[in-house]
C-alpha cells in the first residue's frame, strides 16, 4: 500500500544514530520538503561506538565527523543545521539512558509544530538502541501527532501490512550516494578489525526501490 501522507505541518525524523535518518526516510524527507513541510531531524546517540579500537579515530574525533557527515548529507535536501538536533547520548548503551532518552524525545515531539508526522525505528529492530528510541516515541500520546516506524536492522527486512514510498530511479541513486557519503560507516576507517562497516549488500538493501513504514507504535 502507498503511504498516505496527509497534511502535516512538520515531519520529525528520529534517528538512533547518525545516518539512520537517511536510511529510513530519505525519499520521504525529499517529498515533504518539496511540499513545503518543515523537516526536523533528531539524532539520539553520538555514534561514537562504531570503531572503539581505532587508534586514528578516537571517539571524540569520530563523534565530530559523524555529525559533519549527517549535516552534509541532509543539506542536499535543503535541511540545515538549525533543523538538526544531536542529543549526544551514548552509542550502544542507550538502554542505560532510557529514561533520559524518553524525556528528551518526548520534549522534541511536544515542541514540534502540529499537525506532526513522527518517523522513528521499529520496535522489532534488531539493534537495542533502536528499540529504546521506538519505545520512547510511543511512550505518550499527543493530539495531532501521527507516528510511523521504519525498519533498519536486519537490512532489507520485510514488514507485513506496510505502507511504502516508491523511489524513482533518480531518487534511489541519490539515496545510495548519500548513504555512501557516511564514509566513517562505509569503509573509511580501516584500522579497527572489530569496527562496523556497511557491506555492499547492506547499502543495496538500504537503498532499495521503496521506503517502508508501519504504524505500530503504541
SSE arrangement:
Blueprint: E1 10-15, H1 20-34, E2 38-45, H2 59-75, E3 84-89, H3 98-111, E4 116-121, H4 128-137, E5 145-150, E6 163-166, H5 169-180, H6 200-206, E7 210-213
Parallel strand pairs: 1-2, 1-4, 2-3, 4-5
Antiparallel strand pairs: 6-7
Helix pairs in contact: 1-5, 3-4
List keywords for this structure.
two-stranded antiparallel sheet, 218 residues, 7 strands, alpha/beta, five-stranded parallel β-sheet, single chain
What does this structure look like?
The protein is α/β, with parallel strands linked by helices and 218 residues long. The chain has six helices and seven strands, in the order βαβαβαβαββααβ. The protein has helices spanning 20-34, 59-75, 98-111, 128-137, 169-180, 200-206; strands at residues 10-15, 38-45, 84-89, 116-121, 145-150, 163-166, 210-213. The protein has a five-stranded parallel β-sheet with strand order 3-2-1-4-5, sandwiched between helices. Strands 6-7 form a two-stranded antiparallel ribbon. α1 (20-34) packs across α5 (169-180) and α3 packs across α4 (128-137). It is globular, with a radius of gyration of 16 Å. The mean pLDDT is 93.
